[in-house]
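User: hey, got a sec? need HAD-IA family hydrolase folded
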Amino acid sequence: MLGLPDTVTVALFDLDGVLTSTAVLHQQAWKAAFDAFLRQRDGADFVPFTEQDYLDYVDGRPRDDGIAAFLAARGITDVDPATAAAIGSGKNELFLKNLESGGVMPYPGSVRYLQAARDAGLRIAVVTSSKNGKAVLDAADLSKFVEVRVDGLVTSERGLRGKPAPDSYLLGAELMGVPPSAAAVFEDAISGVQSGAAGHFGYVVGIDRVGGTQAASMTAAGASIVVNDLEELLPV
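Assistant: Yep! Here you go:
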């Protein structure tokens, strides 16, 4: 009834873009932070940070990894650690400001899916690269569904590799007491889908909030199925 194999007993959800609309806030904050850096570096001829840059280099990755990936893609190799850290802290300040102003909303279809999953006895965890996972869950009133939270603070403390490596999802399954084969991964980022595939999880659900070639890219990255909204997995 939940669109998953019968062998799956645990659902591991990414947060931003899967359960909440905060992926938009992340993208806006990254654009502001990167554009400020690029404008200062290159002047009026700077090339702005784009939505595709966000999807290709930042979405789903830990903050520092996303900064490094984007700068490398632009051929920028002379950024010192302090400057990179300033980009990241600037982005996070903008994100938190938007979050505090009421900018987080759960997707209605995701809430319905979480309710159905809980009613069906499917155990729920959240696995996110964001260090603001608790704040987002609390703001969206979703913490009540979540048994285990693995966020950027946890992965940093444990020295785990970020997505697309499977480490965070493997930890989520471990903390829930199940092997990867008994868990499903729910992701809106290509890096997250790759993470689920690399960890050999029982099912990988891609959520396409972008359109265009995103669904095909998710399938190529290892998604078992791609939907536009989690509600599509529920019975009519």
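Quick note: The chain has a mean pLDDT of 93. Let me know if you need anything else on HAD-IA family hydrolase.
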